[in-house]
From TrEMBL:
<dbReference type="InterPro" id="IPR004117">
    <property type="entry name" value="7tm6_olfct_rcpt"/>
</dbReference>
<dbReference type="GO" id="GO:0005549">
    <property type="term" value="F:odorant binding"/>
</dbReference>
<keyword id="KW-0675">Receptor</keyword>
<feature type="transmembrane region" description="Helical">
    <location>
        <begin position="192"/>
        <end position="214"/>
    </location>
</feature>
<protein>
    <recommendedName>
        <fullName>Odorant receptor</fullName>
    </recommendedName>
</protein>
<feature type="transmembrane region" description="Helical">
    <location>
        <begin position="44"/>
        <end position="62"/>
    </location>
</feature>
<dbReference type="GO" id="GO:0007165">
    <property type="term" value="P:signal transduction"/>
</dbReference>
<comment type="similarity">
    <text>Belongs to the insect chemoreceptor superfamily. Heteromeric odorant receptor channel (TC 1.A.69) family.</text>
</comment>
<keyword id="KW-0552">Olfaction</keyword>
<dbReference type="GO" id="GO:0005886">
    <property type="term" value="C:plasma membrane"/>
</dbReference>
<feature type="transmembrane region" description="Helical">
    <location>
        <begin position="82"/>
        <end position="99"/>
    </location>
</feature>
<feature type="transmembrane region" description="Helical">
    <location>
        <begin position="143"/>
        <end position="162"/>
    </location>
</feature>
<dbReference type="GO" id="GO:0004984">
    <property type="term" value="F:olfactory receptor activity"/>
</dbReference>
<feature type="transmembrane region" description="Helical">
    <location>
        <begin position="278"/>
        <end position="298"/>
    </location>
</feature>
<keyword id="KW-1003">Cell membrane</keyword>
<keyword id="KW-0807">Transducer</keyword>
<feature type="transmembrane region" description="Helical">
    <location>
        <begin position="304"/>
        <end position="326"/>
    </location>
</feature>
Length: 401
């Protein structure tokens, strides 16, 4: 995006737009509107969360009953482990969105307050680059959700219509979208195939909407924090310590504003981590298990249709896990950039008062902001390697047994 193409200031709503399928399915979990009284952003409706809760309760109740019956009574099961595991993965993220919905709204409003309203200040902060990256990524996710997601849902139906042996034959698992169990034998009855497919399609839409909402909120928040941290680092670099000798009062007045802004951004980074840390701790390892199941299925089949159907979620798990960990590394580097900017400063040319303050400032700036979860994991590229290694170990365990 060229700077000359930008005519109006960016708004926070521009970064939080939902995908088309979410609007059509009424699965926009955060419907952002401005409160006319104070211009704050609010979530206009909780209905998508309640609809998603109903679908999730039905799906996991039915499948939980099937799993219990298999483990305790030895009944045959119709579970599809890769699909079930990725459904759990999506649902964990949806549950996090629901439990942290108030914190998310509050955090988005804090970011909105920190964003300048005039275009010149936004360009100085390089918000145009932040939006340009968001828009490119939004289009990529749009293709994944609408083309890849629809193909994933339609492939089992195409198999059923083209290869099913007849009305008297039960519906095979590879002809079902999600697999699992439904009451009264509905899932395996060909007469109710399309009714079951609609239920599965609704659950799939709900899960993908959870995933995309989580992904967009995580990336938009991180992109804005990076923008603010990098802008602050540039302000640190532009600070001239020699001015503390000529106009000490004004120099320390400006310096106080910079330090207060640094403290504010550190607080925002801490709250950002607080919102997502439980989801990272649980869903990343569930994602490793899901990736293991998908790799196992792909290694055990020679059916081109099944490979085509399952390769998409496999790639999604790898790519999106990589990006989350990469985002964590970016946040660390941006936080470390504040310290680097101070290290390159000619602090020794400042006044004695500034030199004493500089030592304390450096010590404070060495507290790097990171994405972590209870001291157990740090979300960065090292963590990505650990997840991939865990998925491979689980995969080799399944293959050996």
């Amino acid at each position: 995006m060229k700077t000359t193409d930008i005519k109006e200031p960016f708004r926070m709503e521009d970064f939080l737009r939902p995908q088309l399928f979410q609007k059509l399915a009424r699965m926009v979990h955060f419907q952002w509107l401005r409160n006319p009284e104070d211009n704050s952003m609010v979530n206009a409706s909780m209905w998508p969360f309640w609809l998603s809760a109903i679908l999730n309760i039905m799906f996991f109740t039915f499948n939980g009953w099937d799993i219990i019956g298999h483990l305790w009574l030895g009944r045959p099961t119709n579970q599809n482990p890769p699909v079930l595991s990725i459904t759990i993965y999506f649902s964990i993220r949806g549950l996090m969105l629901f439990l942290k919905r108030n914190e998310i709204v509050e955090f988005v409003n804090d970011l909105d307050r920190e964003c300048p309203r005039d275009l010149a200040s936004q360009l100085d902060m390089q918000m145009d680059r932040t939006y340009s990256y968001f828009w490119k990524r939004y289009r990529i996710v749009q293709i994944y959700a609408h083309v890849g997601g629809l193909a994933f849902c339609l492939m089992p139906m195409a198999l059923f219509l083209l290869t099913h042996e007849g009305k008297g034959s039960p519906v095979a698992q590879h002809e079902q979208l999600l697999g699992g169990w439904l009451p009264l034998g509905l899932r395996k009855d060909p007469k109710f195939y399309f009714l079951v497919w609609i239920f599965d399609f609704s659950c799939t839409t709900c899960g993908v909407s959870f995933f995309i909402t989580f992904d967009n909120l995580f990336n938009v928040m991180q992109g804005h924090l990076l923008m603010h941290l990098n802008h602050l680092a540039r302000q640190f670099s532009a600070l001239d310590p020699r001015q503390s000798l000529t106009n000490e009062e004004q120099f320390f007045s400006d310096l106080r504003l910079l330090v207060q802004r640094q403290q504010l951004l550190n607080d925002l980074c801490g709250r950002y981590n607080e919102i997502f840390k439980v989801a990272f701790l649980v869903s990343n390892f569930v994602g490793a298990g899901s990736l293991c199941f998908y790799l196992f299925v792909l290694s055990e089949t020679s059916d081109v249709v099944i490979i085509a159907q399952f390769i998409l979620p496999t790639l999604v798990l790898v790519v999106f896990t990589f990006e989350i960990c990469f985002r964590g590394t970016q946040l660390e580097e941006a936080s470390e950039g504040l310290e680097s900017s101070l290290c390159l400063q000619e602090w020794y040319l400042g006044s004695e008062r500034y030199r004493k303050f500089y030592l304390l400032w450096m010590q404070y700036s060495q507290r790097t902001q990171k994405l972590a979860a209870f001291g157990l994991i740090e979300v960065n590229m090292v963590h990505f390697t650990e997840i991939m290694q865990l998925a491979y170990r689980l995969f080799t365990f399944l293959k050996s047994h």
